[in-house]
Model the fold of this input.
Amino acid sequence: MNMAKQAVKKGAGIKSFSVQDFKKNLLGEEQAKSADKELEWILMPKAFQTALNLPGLAKSRINLIRGWSDVGKSTLKNLAVASAMKSNILAIIFETEGNFDFQYAKDCGMDITPVYGKVEELDEATGEIVEKDGIVDWTGDYFLFTNKGICDFCGDNDYSTGTKKKTKRKTPVIEDIGYIINTFIDMQEEGKLPKDLFFVWDSVGSISSWKTLQSKVGNPMFDAASISAVFKPIAARISSTKEVGTPYSNTMLIINKIWTDNMNSVGGAVSIENAGGKQLGGFLTRLGIHVGGVAKSGVKKLKATVKGIEYQYGTVSKIAVYKNHLPTPFNLTYSGTICCVHNGIISEDELDEYKKKELPNILKKMKELNPCLEDVSENDITFSEEGEVED
Done:
């Protein structure tokens, strides 16, 4: 008896297989998720948003602000920290340049309070040390690591052997910054620190590496290698907090010194390099912002003058996005200008209104600095601008 051959479907008898189920079984429900959280921001003032068409600094990423001295980098840093504090984000600040201005930080919105007590001061008339009332501390929900504070915390670390020394260094190194950041993230992951974290370092280029310190020979290549080794894993830890299912969002802001590489400038164009090498300022940064000019600071100084005495009450700087690896639709680059004043930044359009409002304070400040101006009035003040905002 002839029997017709029965068609057999491809795959018949093979149990159906779900890649999604396999992924969840292998990685777990949360780790199997591959989406990122909706992009969140550490909000910045209106002048910043208008100039760059961005709400602020990107959370769960490394942000970098670079430029020459006196162009507004520290002002932007203070505003970012103030915004983070208002959002219940814990700011951990590394001030390795040694010039943190507490009063200016407070004027920019940082929620900090002075603590008064007795301080010793040299009486220049008598040459004696005298006691007087003064500020002995500033309190608030933040951490500030100065060079001394860094060494007090981990100056006994020996990064060659991974051991602790009996004495503590007086000089901080790049590896210390990484050690402290990792310590805070570890405490967060262990449930001891249930808060979003905002790490701020002002600034790269102000301290050297462990290897440079031990060799007693300044070598930029040692420092660049140190930054690469220290911050690659930190960048990964920070970036991982942007993923769905992670309970916290950690962010970092780098304030970066710059220098011009004249040897590699082509066709007259200035080549800008970030202090500390290309890793942190280039490859690991997701949002990079340049303040001021390229070849020089390129700011316009805002001055008030009375009886020939000048007082600089602000500056106007160009601000531009030079690197943007943010998700759509925020992955565009814009530029504009900002005015840095006593309590933050404003736009040039707001400058006339600012002068009217702040005229009494400007005069008061000028009188404090120059007692000979005691009899002058607000009508005696003239305003002027010096220099040009340059690219």
